[in-house]
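Students often ask what a holo structure prediction actually looks like on paper. The answer is less mysterious than it sounds. You provide the chain, you provide the ligand, and the output is a string of discrete structure tokens encoding the 3D arrangement of the protein together with zinc ion.
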Amino acid sequence: MSASEQRICPGCGSRQTVLVLRGLAGPTDESDQYFRCLECDRVTYEIVSRTEREVRASRLAPGRSVRERGSAYTVRRVLKVGVNEYLVYLTPDLDDRALSFAPR
Ligand SMILES: [Zn+2]
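The corresponding structure tokens follow.
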């Protein structure tokens, strides 16, 4: 993995991260893409898979703020990839208080 592709944990700034790629052919059959920090164990999502109903119910659109497993993200892009599947590209919200304070 090249330096430019390296993920930096938004929680603690560590580069010790493990990327889990979305891939339906992969051994884990992951539908989401994320990386896990080896220092603080934080999981940061990059792409999550959603149904059309979920996209509508959560009004997912670029620029919207969302929470994914307790952490705040901004939606970067919503891409329709199947009859009933959307890929939602997320960017961690660096103002998220959960990054520096324990979640309530
Ligand atoms: Zn970390």
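The pocket of zinc ion is lined by residues 9, 11-12, 14, 37, 39-40, 42 (CB under 6 Å).
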